[in-house]
Design a protein that fits this description.
This protein is α/β, with parallel strands linked by helices. Helices cover 29% and strands 30% of the residues. The strands form six sheets. It has a seven-stranded mixed sheet with strand order 5-4-1-7-14-9-16, sandwiched between helices. It starts with a strand and ends in a 5-residue tail after the last helix.
Length: 244
Amino acid sequence: MSVKAALLCGGTGSRLRPLTYYFQKTMLPIGTSQKPILEFIIRYLKFHNINKVTMLVGYKAEQIVNYFRDGSNFGLKVDYSYDSNELKGNGGALINAYRAGMFDGYEDVLIYYSDILTDMDLTKLLNFHKEKRFFATLAVSDHYKLPVGVAEMKEDTVISFKEKPSININPTIGVLVMKTEAIKRFSEMKGEIDIMGDMITSLVKERLVGGYVTNSFWIDVGTTETYEKLDHELIESMFSKYFH
């Protein structure tokens, strides 16, 4: 499959302040090895034979560029698309890269929100997308674990309580595949554009979006609360296979 990855790593990381006053959020160290979040993602992509990557950068881009350079030290090829003044939001960053020709010759673009960690089988997602011929395919979890306890009430009495229960919904996990042809559809848009809120929502109305359901581990590392509570030993053990 002709696919290139587009990593969304240009945000200011407001949910991770004050850490992101000093770090690009994707460069925060994790695991016992204390390597950047983005390196874990790059190793994961390489493991699944994604060898061409465009990093969509903006805020503190120098930290990313100086670390990954052309990607050769990691066994793949990396190029960079910088945020523009004309196009805003993550959708704007994606369209900006498209206009610059960075996805030319590729049938599909694997879009990855770079504050997400997952050990989902990426190869199966890509195969599913190809077989089903959707314009876009979202990776979705088979459940969502609430971050709070839930009380069942009868008048003013709690009659049952569950601490952080899982509920039967399908949250997106920050990984999706989109046909380059689909990105072209939105390439004339202007202003602030959101991939999920504008581009995917539009395609859903035409029934052109698939959902690949997974029960794999995933975590959003994009808040100070989740970052501070991150089990670094667990992350290291789960992702160690991607570093060999």
